[in-house]
């Protein structure tokens, strides 16, 4: 029997192996769980011409990626570093014509990811009708006639990435990805729709036996996963549910660099190119802002499941030798 | 009477009054989330809270949330199945009240949260974040409250980009026909409260904030603002209301 | 403050209050978790003209409902009592013109429920093209042109019931419904799409605090729920995950009655009309087939979640008084 | 040589050989589920198992499952997110092999699992269960194995109801054009193994079961059955294969 494949690897190797220039990339997370360690590694490896798909993204991760010149197009609803109130690098790149934006509403984008997940070519949505998004994003949005009612209805094109990049709470070495506290928002959709598969950084790597004790929590099953990377603090400065909160001060600090065309390269030099990997980035953080900076991010724990759950199995062998139930009516 | 409350407190208390007990309310981060926690703590204990990150709650979160997928929203939540589940409730028409923000609004209630300038000449266009869920909320919620800062560049004749269509005819689609939705139903700015004329579908000033002369409100609006014949002053929050409200955000994270 | 509403009630009251003649009903479960106690109560109350929506259904529950004359139309992919290899009463009702069948593939039906869940009017599917289902079910199925690619693609009309009826492992008295071990297959979709709401029978009723300790497991949130009924063995003779397996011998016994137009009324008289409620039905079962009949259905337990999960909350009050992070580059 | 194995055992072992290690396999209840457990236990330890109830597994279930949403399929499963998740994988084209059953098949591989008779004259139509997932499997899996009983009423010139279109032109749709799928790729009946001619898209006998003369197989088919020039006998299961297989269903729940 062939050995079951262990998919754990270093982030450097995962990104080098599974992300190509020009790829369409599902970019995971929402306002938290932003795949920041992967973002830095994409920048370090000077990936170019990426086409990004996602619903909404915060904490400036995508702003860094665009500012570093990795992105050619973005299909999405919302991109921000909320803590400085704008996506500065994206704004500059759009003005300079370096990046194309294809805007949808948040549920328009989520529906496009859902259609990709379902393997269907498009899906109707209720939003977007009458907006300028229909004018400016004909690639993703059309208004058609509902063949059942004859009424006009917007439809969005299915989004399917080549590769998905996400940060998760846990994964096993086989590649099963576990999320709790809202099942990953849109990550389940974006990942399953990805054609080649998923690169996941996780706070903890566990044995498949742990995941299999509660398969309802799996949001990405192993057969979609390309690489599992053990990466504590992999979403920093965004939050990771149950592990750390948003580092608001660092988002603001990073945001001040994002704000200026001249300063951003200094940030990238110091915090991305100048750090060999995410561990080095966290070491630099501690050197510069102290361990108390990270300590401040620790969550209040104690919100633990309290229901007694058992998946229970029934063995059909019990039926062996049990006679048919019958009575006077059905004897024949 | 002008010194004992803050502008945000006035806005939040005013907005909260639009929520009726037992209603389904879709709230984003920031002032809307404070607003619903305040409503739950006062006149709407049976309100049902939905958020974009997928939270469904019968009770206020155990503390302040600073993102729409904040762990706070899921700790002791009633359900948590991602954006699909709450946005689907919105699309099914089950949301009574939703909140949106925006950077520009025009006389016909079109809201812009995408950017200012001419989109087709990219170098003139200053991108904000994008629609996010604003367009979805306005498309499907029964009542849509917009909370916005007001100045002449924000209250304009025609928004630079229609992110969220208002209650009139936009881009060839007439709202209110068939299922086609109707945009914001009320606007709470930093200066007053606005509603829409059922016939002309034009925005008008319904309430002014205490101490703000109508002339100053008009001056912060770059179109010819209609004023309600029944113009009222927005009620000043009571001491009791302020005490409750401040207990929800004790460090003034949002309210300061 | 108004008291929070307790939605627990007797099944008799729930069905009398919330199901009307002529209603469109989402019928829960799949091969297991069939809402059998609700089925019996619908029959007892002589509900008429129901239009049933579901993907696939087994164990003869729907066959009894049709055989008792409650159903006018069925939109579905598959109906069976697998243990006698046919849906006999449905077959007879179709032949006699008493029931209309609108057939889709299983994922066609699931997609129709998903479209109802999403609040959109229709949704594309990959299956059904070329089949006779397109000829015979134009109400639910059309082939249209994908507006993005121009290729033909089947679309199914959204299904939205007036009311959904399901059996669940647990619910709280507020109405939150909990499932584990595959998240209810299609119940989450059929229930959320229901316009008036959901009647749920559950093996156990728990406090909301238990459910809230693990909100990821909620498949129907309380605001969609009309009535919560405590009903142990409520899916019998089908299975309830973690509580009991399929009662194959009883399915076969019931199936022998389903098989004959003349025998079915005797079964209904003895096991449905003749039992005041589901408790009486279970008492009758024990009288007739012994307690060992039920004991045989007990699952093998010990398949319990073993991951240490904490939803974790971060208090933004920690930021009070923390100065901005800065350095020589961004001093200005 | 005809006495030491059962017909179902022969069918299961033959079907299992169609599964290659590492493939994604969609299996329904009964013989298919035994087939995949056998493949996992022998030559395909890295097979990925999906079921209609939503199970995704790297390992065989801890025991026999008797429904497609059987608890057995989720105990120690790798993922369990309902029918959406596995059927979506199917629609995305990620399933290598799927199994279907059926009550009738015709010379062009159309399969009927809906009912026999004339649908438009209801009183003549005997309903079976309906499509279930059969149509979906055949529409989207790369290879589709049909396991069916064979007699002249089941192997017919034209099925009474096309539940699952075969690899030819049906109801105006030509399979294999664009994304339009192609129906069953192999049939294992109770008498032999069938494949389809790439040009004529017609079914032909590729293997006969041990001890069954081709004439008897022809007699159990009501159209003029084509026979492969390379007709082979289906291999008899080895002792080792039978031992492994019987350990999966020790009480003979399916195999007897």
Please summarize what this structure is.
By secondary structure, chain A is of the alpha/beta class. Helices cover 30% and strands 20% of the residues of chain A.
Describe this structure in words.
The complex is a heterotetramer, with 2 copies of chain A (332 residues) and 2 copies of chain B (256 residues). Chain A has 332 residues and is an alpha/beta fold. Chain A has one domain: 3-Layer(aba) Sandwich (Glutaconate Coenzyme A-transferase), CATH 3.40.1080. Chain A has 12 helices and 14 strands. Chain A has helices spanning 11-18, 36-44, 61-67, 88-95, 106-118, 132-136, 187-193, 208-212, 248-258, 264-273, 278-289, 291-295, and strands at 24-27, 50-53, 56-57, 71-76, 78-79, 100-103, 122-124, 141-145, 152-157, 163-172, 177-178, 197-206, 218-220, 225-230. In chain A, the strands form 3 sheets. In chain A, strands 1, 2, 4, 6, 10, 11, 12, 13 and 14 form a 9-stranded mixed beta sheet that branches. In chain A, strands 7-9-8 form a 3-stranded antiparallel beta sheet, covered by helices on one side. In chain A, strands 3-5 form a two-stranded parallel ribbon. The mean pLDDT of chain A is 96. Chain B is an alpha/beta fold. Chain B has one domain (7-248): Glutaconate Coenzyme A-transferase. Chain B contains 6 helices and 17 strands. In chain B, the strands form 4 sheets. In chain B, strands 4-3-2-1-5-10-14-15-16-17 form a 10-stranded mixed beta sheet, sandwiched between helices. Chain B has a 3-stranded mixed beta sheet with strand order 7-6-11, with no helix packed on it. In chain B, helix 1 crosses helix 2 (31-41). The two termini of chain B are 18 Å apart. The relative contact order of chain B is 0.16. The model of chain B has no long low-confidence stretch (mean pLDDT 94). The chains are: A alpha/beta (332), B alpha/beta (256). The interface between A and C is large, with 87 and 86 residues.
């Amino acid at each position: 029997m062939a050995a079951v494949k262990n998919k754990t690897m270093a982030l450097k190797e995962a990104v080098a192996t599974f992300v190509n220039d020009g790829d369409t990339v599902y970019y995971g997370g929402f306002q938290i769980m932003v795949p920041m360690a992967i973002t830095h590694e994409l920048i370090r490896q000077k990936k170019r011409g990426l086409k990004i798909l996602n619903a909404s993204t915060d904490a400036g991760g995508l702003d860094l990626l665009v500012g570093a010149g990795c992105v050619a197009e973005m299909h999405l609803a919302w991109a921000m570093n909320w803590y400085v109130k704008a996506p500065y690098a994206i704004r500059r790149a759009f003005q300079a014509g370096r990046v194309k934006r294809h805007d949808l509403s948040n549920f328009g984008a989520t529906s496009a990811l859902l259609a990709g997940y379902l393997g269907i070519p498009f899906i109707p949505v209720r939003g977007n009708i009458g907006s300028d998004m229909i004018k400016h994003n004909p690639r993703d949005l059309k208004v058609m006639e509902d063949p059942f009612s004859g009424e006009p209805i917007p439809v969005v094109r299915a989004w399917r990435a080549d590769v998905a990049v996400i940060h998760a709470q846990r994964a096993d070495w086989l590649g099963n990805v576990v999320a709790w506290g809202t099942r990953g928002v849109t990550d389940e959709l974006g990942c399953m729709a990805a054609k080649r598969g998923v690169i996941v950084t996780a706070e903890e790597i566990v044995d498949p036996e742990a995941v299999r004790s509660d398969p309802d929590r799996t949001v990405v099953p192993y057969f979609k996963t390309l690489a599992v990377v053990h990466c504590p603090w992999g979403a920093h400065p965004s939050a990771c549910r149950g592990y750390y909160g948003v580092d608001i001060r660092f988002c603001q600090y990073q945001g001040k660099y994002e704000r200026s065309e001249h300063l951003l390269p200094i940030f990238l030099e110091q915090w991305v190119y100048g750090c060999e990997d995410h561990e080095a980035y966290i070491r630099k953080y501690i050197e510069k802002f102290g361990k108390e900076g990270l300590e401040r991010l620790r969550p209040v724990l104690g919100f633990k499941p309290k229901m007694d759950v058992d998946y229970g199995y029934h063995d059909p062998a019990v039926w062996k030798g049990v006679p048919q139930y019958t009575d006077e009516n059905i004897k024949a | 009477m002008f010194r004992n409350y803050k502008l945000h407190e006035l806005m939040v208390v005013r907005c909260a009054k639009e929520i009726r007990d037992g209603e389904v309310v879709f709230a984003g981060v920031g002032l809307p989330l404070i607003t619903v926690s305040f409503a739950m703590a006062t006149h709407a204990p049976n309100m049902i809270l939905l958020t974009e990150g997928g939270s469904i709650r019968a009770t206020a979160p155990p503390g302040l949330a600073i993102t729409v997928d904040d762990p706070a929203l899921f700790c002791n939540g009633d359900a948590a199945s991602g954006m699909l589940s709450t946005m689907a409730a919105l699309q099914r028409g089950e949301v009574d009240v939703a909140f949106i923000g925006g950077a520009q609004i025009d006389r016909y209630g079109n809201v812009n949260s995408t950017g200012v300038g001419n989109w087709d000449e990219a170098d003139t266009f200053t991108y904000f974040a994008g629609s996010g869920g604003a367009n979805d909320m306005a498309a499907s919620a029964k009542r849509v409250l917009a909370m916005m800062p007001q100045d002449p560049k924000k209250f304009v004749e025609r928004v630079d980009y229609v992110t969220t269509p208002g209650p009139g005819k936009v881009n060839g689609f007439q709202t209110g026909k068939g299922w086609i939705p109707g945009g914001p139903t009320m606007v709470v700015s930093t200066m007053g409260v606005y509603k829409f004329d059922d016939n002309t579908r034009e925005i008008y000033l319904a309430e002014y904030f205490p101490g703000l002369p109508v002339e100053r409100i008009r001056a912060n609006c770059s179109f010819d603002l209609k004023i309600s014949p029944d113009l009222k002053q927005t009620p000043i929050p009571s001491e009791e209301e302020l005490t409750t409200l401040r207990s929800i955000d004790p460090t003034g994270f949002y309210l300061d």
